[in-house]
Every structure is written in structure tokens, then in C-alpha cells.
């Protein structure tokens, strides 16, 4: 069951895709998870993730974080032209505004009917960085970061982290080179709130179903860890 949520900020309004569990929300409020997009917008991959989380008993919400650049971006990773557009969007994107929009989404979600009050976040690629920053800058109850790009520049923010964070790192990530991974692991591996898993031999977006580097076994492993993490921390 899906719907569209409108979220208002001081800068304007944007929309989010919402997927709900089949159970009656009045009878059984569910925890919520904000799904943070890759560089392709709120596309079928993101909507499918929301639908899958809803099937697992969560209210899942994917906000349109590119709305300040162009609302309604919905492209794929299947053509050179779409990759070019995706990187244009990535380069034009303001990370601080993005985190502020995620915070606004979390606040709106907490007030939604059928939500228990617990709200987590999961992000991929650009969203993996934003999930880390959501963990350090917002009141999200638990966050999951998949192969965050540029995260090594922000590891100092972990000092502000007060709630659980799960991180998935692709060992052969073409967008997060070994020296960047070394910075991330050195800074974060002993943090009491952070759990990190590295996937040997995997490239960026190994959990993106249909992507060039998709690996079904490791995607299933990572997604299983994420589901268990959310059930523990949002229950």
C-alpha cells in the first residue's frame, strides 16, 4: 500500500514516496524507516526497497531530496545519458540542505498516523553518506549506511553520535578508494555505537538489484543484517 507524503520546510515543500504494511495501522502502529536515495532520485529501485521494508512490517518513506534542483527525478543506472545526469545532480546537491530535509522528513513521519514513534534511516551511495550524517545530526533512532561516498571527510562528526549506526562497506568500491576506507575504519571501528561490515571483493552498489555490480549473496547478507538491526533498535 503506497501513498505520497508532502513535507513542508521554510524553503518550500517536497514529496516523499510512502509504503505501508498491510496490517491495520490503527490496530498496530509500526516503526518507520526513511529510505535515502542514491544519485538517481526516487526511482523504482528506491520504491522497491520501500515496498520490501513495508512487507517486513515497517512504514517506509523515500523523500525527494533533489527537489531543490529539480523535483521528481526518476532515472536509472542503465544508460550513459542517465549516469551523466545523475552525476550532474550529485555535483549540484547541497549535503547540508539534504540532511535538513531528512530531519524534516523524520519529524513529519513521527507525526504520521500508524507510526509507532520510532524512526530509523537507511541510505545508499550518496544516501550512505547522508545516513551517516542523519545519525550524527538528527534524532533518528537507528541508521544504516550502504557504501557511503565522501564519508571519510565527515568522520569527525562521529563524536556526536548517540544512537546505533550500522555500516556496509564494499572492499573494492571504485568511489571509496582504499585510502578513504582506511580513514573511515580507523576513525570509526572502535566507536561504541557503530557496527561495520566490509564485503570482500565487492564493488560500489553491490546491493543494488539489477546493477552492474550486484551480488545476490552479499546483498542478502547485508540486507539481513540491516533488517535484524532495525528490528532490534526500532522495536
From TrEMBL:
Superkingdom of origin: Bacteria
Gene Ontology molecular function, alphabetical: hydrolase activity
Domain Dienelactone hydrolase positions: 14-232
Signal peptide: none
UniProt cross-references to Pfam families, sorted A to Z: DLH
Name of the protein: Carboxymethylenebutenolidase
Organism: Caulobacter henricii
Amino acid at each position: 500500500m503506497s501513498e505520497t507524503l508532502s513535507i513542508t520546510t521554510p524553503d518550500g515543500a517536497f514529496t516523499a514516496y510512502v509504503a505501508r504494511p498491510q496490517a491495520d495501522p490503527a490496530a498496530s502502529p509500526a516503526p518507520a524507516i526513511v529510505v535515502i536515495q542514491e544519485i538517481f532520485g526516487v526511482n523504482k529501485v528506491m520504491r522497491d526497497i520501500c515496498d520490501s521494508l513495508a512487507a517486513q512490517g515497517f512504514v517506509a518513506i523515500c523523500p525527494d531530496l533533489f527537489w531543490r534542483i529539480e523535483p521528481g527525478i526518476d532515472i536509472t543506472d542503465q544508460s550513459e545519458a542517465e549516469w551523466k545526469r545523475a552525476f550532474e545532480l550529485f555535483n549540484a546537491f547541497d549535503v547540508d540542505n539534504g540532511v535538513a530535509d531528512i530531519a524534516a522528513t523524520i519529524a513529519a513521519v513521527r507525526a504520521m498516523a500508524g507510526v509507532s514513534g520510532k524512526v530509523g534511516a537507511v541510505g545508499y551511495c550518496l544516501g550512505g553518506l547522508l545516513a551517516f550524517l542523519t545519525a550524527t545530526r538528527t534524532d533518528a533512532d537507528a541508521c544504516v549506511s550502504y557504501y557511503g561516498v565522501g564519508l571519510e571527510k565527515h568522520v569527525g562528526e562521529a563524536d556526536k553520535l548517540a544512537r546505533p549506526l550500522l555500516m556496509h562497506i564494499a572492499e573494492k568500491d571504485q568511489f571509496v578508494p582504499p585510502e578513504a576506507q582506511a580513514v573511515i575504519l580507523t576513525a570509526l571501528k572502535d566507536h561504541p555505537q557503530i557496527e561495520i561490515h566490509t564485503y570482500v571483493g565487492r564493488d560500489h552498489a553491490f546491493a543494488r538489484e539489477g546493477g552492474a555490480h550486484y551480488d545476490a549473496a552479499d546483498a542478502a547478507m547485508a540486507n539481513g543484517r540491516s533488517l535484524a538491526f532495525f528490528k532490534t533498535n526500532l522495536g
